[in-house]
């Protein structure tokens, strides 16, 4: 089958990362989230005159070797800070994402991937959300914090993601349904139910 890509945007605590990893296992394709940021960070600090040589290295086999070395961390990572832009870092992330989808079928979590790949002909974009009480419960369980701290982290992280998306997309709202093929409530459907539905849609669309 020709390469395809699934982008996953998610509210904090909604289980979007678990859905992405479960879907990746089901479909037999890799999923990427923090490895993209890590690899981009390793290259974004170079001086402008070195950009060309770094960009050449980011292609094909070099990129795949480098990103496969990095661990696919599966844990909650709240953004307990205000958003601060880093245009060069974001540009490297975009370069990495575009190279990845040329090399293989994969799942990209976050990173404005639905926007970065908006013109990709073989893309499925998904947004995962859940009721606030579900997100609070998941955050309490995964980060071992009380309800008050979980609520605070939810507000901070989702605000960070809102500001991040708006800045790099020129003012777009990441929660707008027009960006996505599917919007799923993991609180109602559960993790496995979301995986089942996305898998069915992907196979239906690309077969």
Would you spell out the secondary-structure blueprint of this structure?
Layout: E1 5-10, H1 16-27, E2 31-32, H2 34-44, H3 51-57, H4 60-69, H5 87-103, E3 106-109, H6 113-116, E4 123-129, H7 132-143, H8 147-169, E5 182-185, H9 186-206
Parallel strand pairs: 1-3, 1-4, 2-3, 4-5
- Total strand segments: 5
Give the tally of structural domains: 1
CATH architecture: 3-Layer(aba) Sandwich
Helix content: 55-70%
Judging from the principal axes of the Cα atoms, what is the shape?
globular
Counted by DSSP, the helix tally is: 9
Determine the structural class based on helices, strands and strand pairing: alpha/beta
**CATH class membership:** Alpha Beta
**In what range is the share of β-strand residues?**
5-15%
Query: What's the alpha carbon Rg, rounded to whole Å?
Result: 17 Å
Looking at the structure, the CATH topology is Rossmann fold
What's the N-to-C terminus distance?
Answer: 8 Å
What is the CATH superfamily classification? P-loop containing nucleotide triphosphate hydrolases
Please state how the strands of the largest beta sheet are arranged side by side: 2-3-1-4-5
Tell me, rounded to a whole number, the average pLDDT. 86
Order of helices and strands: EHEHHHHEHEHHEH
Main sheet: strands, sense, barrel: 5 strands, parallel
Spans with pLDDT under 50 lasting ≥5 residues?
47-58
Describe this protein's structure.
The chain contains nine helices and five strands, in the order βαβααααβαβααβα. Residues 47-58 have low confidence and may be disordered. It has 207 residues and is α/β, with parallel strands linked by helices. It is globular. The longest helix has 23 residues, at 147-169. The chain has a single domain, classed as Rossmann fold.
């Amino acid at each position: 089958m020709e390469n395809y890509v699934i982008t996953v945007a998610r509210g904090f605590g909604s289980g979007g990362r678990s859905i992405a990893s479960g879907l990746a296992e089901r479909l037999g394709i890799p999923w990427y989230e923090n490895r993209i940021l890590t690899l981009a960070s390793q290259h974004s600090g170079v001086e402008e005159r070195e950009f060309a040589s770094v960009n050449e290295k980011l292609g094909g086999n070099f990129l795949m070797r480098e990103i496969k070395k990095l661990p696919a961390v599966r844990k909650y990572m709240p953004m307990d800070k205000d958003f601060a832009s880093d245009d060069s870092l974001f540009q490297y992330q975009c370069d990495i994402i575009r190279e990845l989808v040329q090399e293989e079928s994969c799942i990209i979590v976050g990173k404005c991937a639905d926007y970065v790949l908006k013109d990709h002909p073989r893309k499925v974009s998904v947004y995962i959300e859940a009721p606030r009480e579900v997100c609070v419960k998941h955050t309490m369980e995964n980060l071992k914090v009380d309800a008050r701290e979980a609520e605070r982290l939810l507000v901070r992280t989702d605000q960070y993601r809102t500001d991040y998306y708006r800045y790099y997309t020129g003012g777009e709202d990441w929660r707008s349904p027009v960006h996505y093929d599917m919007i799923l409530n993991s609180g109602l459907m559960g993790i496995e139910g979301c995986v089942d539905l996305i898998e069915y849609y992907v196979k239906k669309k690309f077969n």
